[in-house]
Amino acid sequence: MLQKIGNLLISASSVILLFTSNNVFAWGQNGHRIVAQVANSHLTPATVRALAPLLEGESLPQIATWADEMRSAPGEFWQEKSSRWHYINADAATLNNPPSHHSSKESVSNILDALLFNIAVLKDTNSSIDAKRFSLRFVVHLVGDSHQPFHAGRKGDRGGNNISVIFFGQDTNLHSLWDSKLIENENLSYTEFADFINTDNKLLIAKYLHSSPVEWLQESHNIANSIYNKHETKISYQYIYKNMPIIKTRLQQSGIRLAGLLNLIYDNSALPLVKALKMPANIN
């Protein structure tokens, strides 16, 4: 059912995305698919088998953009509530005092709540297959969102959406610059981009996997603050040279952590810091 709805709405959603001036989507389609493609290569065989009935014949990259595409769907959740699942107005108090419980769907107020809620659904053996399919699509998407710096940015400028910049002579905004324009400037397909940034470095993977959603958002918040503080508005080659390594690292981290999270949920034999995340007990 989820697949049919998503396929029916994808064309209409794409048109809407082209013309909206208040875009708060993270990474753009290519970025989310890059994250999912990197994750694919770090899943264990047991996790791949467990995900098969939830994917309904699709791949992780195919479902990675579903949560954005569905935001044009009718219904109270998609029209009035789902947008808050994609970001957090981050500050020290918010991230240093994360929720100690998993929110219900109705009480989710930000991306951190949404991640914890959907992780809990996937781990709950009593969850229905449709609930798990819904939550898998959101987890794949929101792990990506949590690594886009401006999804943990400032409320006052809507995560950089209200900060105008000029990208090679074209007007845009800081959020759009980081979610898609810098990535698209590389002129790579999502598979090529994923291949170029993927890693088998065991020490680096272990470092990435020793983390939790709270830390991913704190990292994003810190990166966003550093970019805010530089006040750069005319974007050209020097800006790309300085900041593309940050974007590539965030996409790499996101893909490996997504795989680590899924392995943690679906493969009891997956070793923490090798194939699975090592997270606080209240998330495990």
Automatic annotation (TrEMBL):
One GO molecular function term of this record is: hydrolase activity, acting on ester bonds
Protein name stated in the entry:
S1/P1 Nuclease
Q: Does the keyword Ligase apply?
A: no
- A Pfam family that this protein carries is S1-P1_nuclease
What organism does this protein naturally occur in?
Answer: Pseudoalteromonas arctica
The answer to whether keyword Disulfide bond applies is yes
- Note the superkingdom of the native organism: Bacteria
The biological process GO terms on file are:
DNA catabolic process
Which key words tag this protein in UniProt?
A: Disulfide bond, Endonuclease, Glycoprotein, Hydrolase, Metal-binding, Nuclease
